[in-house]
Amino acid sequence: MASTPQPATKGRRFHHKSRYGCAPCKRRRIKCDEKKPVCGNCAQRSVECSFKSLEPASKSQPLSKLTTVGNASNSIILGVPARVSGAGAAMPFCRSDTRDLELYCHFQIYTSTTLAQPVSLERLYREDIPSLSVAFPFVGHGLLSIAYIHLASLSPQDTSKKLLAESAFHVNQALPGYLETIKNITEDNSSPLFSFALFVVLFAFANSSEESGVLLQAARSQPYLPEETVRNLGTTAARVARSIQNIFGIFWRCQHWISSGPLSPVIRRYLPPTLSDSSMEWIRVEDQQLARLSRLWEEEPTTALAHSCALTNSLICLRDTFAMVTQLTVIPTEDIETSDTNIRGNDLANIHRQLSAGHLYDAPSVFTWYIRLSPDFIGLMEEGNVYAMVVLAHYAIVLDRACAGKWWAHRLSQHFVAMAEVILGKERRAWIEWPLMVIAT
């Protein structure tokens, strides 16, 4: 039988594909030289290179320690294993012939450093929480869901959609094991349950930001706003509240175990610094502005009493959260001398700018508002109630100060304000003048 002719060797010359190039180069569809921490193209154009955010916090940490998982042994590219054929018996949550093991290592090397605030929490996310996944696979699935979201935030849009789908897959895989374990909380499983609840909160933030962006785009293209769209927007906004209340539901049931276990640094609170004259003035000015919001529903005779109480209580909680976050924010030394002059005019935009530039030592304090929300208010939020949307839009201000630039929060604060703007309509736009002024939607 005649032999099969060999394909011609002539044609397009092979060149190295920049499969692991930085995000800006991928968006521009150009070859990346993959130099760290800033590639040549980004250095030449003076743009922010995504490799900079991927630099490990400690370059002295040996990669072999971080990338040896189970019985897998793989070649390393950028400190992360390439696509693997088997994940190892000790890693049942890692599927074969996928990027799961790669993303597991990505979490340990890169994602963990972005979540470790303060930096003292880095070992917790890099080693302690991943070690729980061996005995509790639902923790591993939760970890992978967050790793996929983190990588999606660094990838071009066409790639990020696939990565977000992988993230959702792992959350769905984790839920049965998590729900079964939570039926009987013990000292041994309290830390894994709390760890997974942390991942769910991050997933809820990222997922709500992504989903609300799609809903807002669709809403703005319609001549009128259907009730279904309003409910969908409200439900998306309320999902974050429910996820945060869920994690604290677990915490209160096993606080004594978590407080003495490996996750104790996560729940450690910090003493507020001494309030400066400027901070006290900022708290006073913003609290006066927030207090006026209650007139919207209190002066409306058709507002049900139960709804009015839920709205007023949510506003009280919001005022407390604003004051707490301001008290826990330390302003850079170089800005202290000029802050008094800037704020003498009670300029809300300047107050927001100053506090956004400060450092919030106790980041979880911004979620105090969510923890204290009543089921009635969350229900109003899910319905897209106009007054609940006003309160949510003002919460977006303090959320923006604490989480602006966080990859897992993405543009959620902007989307909250945009949701309120769409639902309120032009005739009630003045109700959210402050959020619209300080947060670009």
From TrEMBL:
Coiled coil: none annotated. InterPro entries: Sterol_Uptake_Regulator, Zn2-C6_fun-type_DNA-bd_sf, Zn2Cys6_DnaBD. It comes from the Eukaryota. SUPFAM superfamilies: Zn2/Cys6 DNA-binding domain. Residues 21-51 form the Zn(2)-C6 fungal-type domain. Keywords: DNA-binding, Nucleus, Transcription, Transcription regulation. This is Zn(2)-C6 fungal-type domain-containing protein. It comes from Aspergillus granulosus.
